Amino acid sequence: MKCFPFYFGEKKDGPKSLQSISGRSNISTTVEAEMRRSGSELNSMDASDTSTDSLRRNAFPSLSQRPSNLRVFTVPELKTSTKSFSRSMMLGEGGFGCVYKGLIKSVDDPSTRIEVAVKQLGRRGIQGHKEWVTEVNVLGIVEHPNLVKLVGYCADDDERGIQRLLVYEYMPNRSVEHHLSPRSETPLPWNRRLKIAQDAARGLTYLHEEMDFQIIFRDFKSSNILLDEQWKAKLSDFGLARLGPSDGLTHVSTAVVGTMGYAAPEYVQTGRLTSKSDVWSYGVFLYELITGRRPIDRNRPKGEQKMLEWIRPYLSDGRKFQLILDPRLERKHLFKSAQKLAVIANKCLVRNPKNRPKMSEVLQMVTQVVESSVSTNPQPPLKGVVASEEPSSETVNKKITMDQQPDCNWLRMWRAKFLSTWL
Q1: Which residues pair with 249 in a beta bridge?
Q2: Catalytic one among 13, 53, 156, 219?
Q3: 387 pLDDT exceeds 50?
Q4: Fewer CB atoms inside 10 Å of the end CB: C or N, the chain?
């Protein structure tokens, strides 16, 4: 599912202000001039309205002036590492370019080579370059176990013009979207999905609340959550990220961009961006984990193409709730856990963004579900993308057995909470 811009009315982004990138000594004069013209969208904004819940920050940081340990690569280096960007080395293709697997020399030990992912941005002009600059600005100065590490970048001239590339740590287990796909040979077991939900919440909490400035992801979705060799989930692709509103302001007014099915309704309708927009997207993602379905899937029957609309009739009845569970999951021990995760998702999907929880609160709730599930149903992690077992599944029409019956007290509480949220 690719991201693309939505435009409503005459709303546009405010004036762009150039922010140079630290440590880019090898970037050509041509690129320097282009960056001065284009600048980073991350630091351009038109914020308005007085905030009643003032953030901790006093002013926007100048991200470009913060120290960065990014490596600066040349085009020949990255050509060599990817076998001249061979299709045999291609890992995938996104909205802003192709990604290749590569091998580069380790800084600590030049005799050792490490695996990386090299994103080569398409030659689409200034728009692609803006996302490139934003990625370098964000990932060059933030670091967290649940954010994909940016190793370095390349902005150089060759016979074909300006080359813009990004070099990331290699994530061998691909994206969450890949494993949720019906075509995946490695459907994620339930406890692994819970851990992924927890990891993703940790990453968003860090961006929203744990720095002296706030970053709004703006394109949170399953394809932007990658899995390392230990199956730890990390947020990736920060090309659309924006700084949150400064102290005394409630939102950032911006052109509406993102991915259909994940974007918060108030953001789509007004262009007013807050961290609660990411919270909405996270709620959609939780239902994606529960159902194994994409938020929008045009290949399904008409009444099932929009996931949130499809699940709505099944949420008020615990017996019907089992019908929306991913049929590839072993259901015997996950019923209560899935219900609890659905309650958290509903809190994130409240129509009024002010009533949605902060990501730190969401993280606390998800952690409780994870701890409860692991203690009652321990499950070994997957070993790798090529090693999988046949998923154990039941047909959705099978009658619920006695050991699958939900706890009545929990069910009554669960139903009451749903009635007061987005339904």
Answers
A1: 50
A2: 219
A3: no
A4: C
Fold for 16-169, please state it.
Phosphorylase Kinase; domain 1 (3.30.200)
Q: Is 119 annotated as a binding residue?
A: yes
Residues 6 or more apart whose CB falls under 8 angstroms from that of 278 comprise: 204, 207, 208, 216, 217, 218, 220, 359
CA atoms within 13 A on the CB side of 35: 23
Name residue 85's amino acid.
F
Q: Is 156 a catalytic site residue?
A: no
Helices marked H in 170-255 — which ranges? 176-180, 190-209
Confidence check: pLDDT of 358 > 80: yes
What six digits make up the tokens of 103?
């091998």
**Mean pLDDT over each residue of the chain, to the nearest integer:** 77
Task: Report how far apart, in Å, the C-alpha atoms of 196 and of each of 71, 174, 200, 232 are.
Answer: 29, 13, 6, 7
Q: Among the CATH numbers 3.30.420.10, 3.40.50.300, 1.10.510.10, 3.30.420.40, which is that of 176-419?
A: 1.10.510.10
Which pair of tokens denotes residue 50?
Answer: 């007085």
**Residue 44, pLDDT above cutoff 60:** no
Backbone torsions φ then ψ of 157, nearest 5 degrees: -105, 140
Predicted local distance difference test score (pLDDT) of residue 123: 61
* 49 confidence band (pLDDT: 50, 70, 90): very low
Burial-class residue 180 by CB neighbours within 10 Å (0-12, 13-18, 19+): buried
- Of the chain, the end-to-end C-alpha distance in Å amounts to 25
Whether 173 has a pLDDT exceeding 60, the answer reads yes
Enumerate the domain spans of the chain: 16-169, 176-419
Contact 404, 322 (CB under 8 A): yes
d(CA 222, CA 178): 8
Q: Give the three-state DSSP class for 141.
A: coil
Pairing of strands 249-253, 46-50: antiparallel
Cβ atoms 246, 159 nearer than 8 A: no
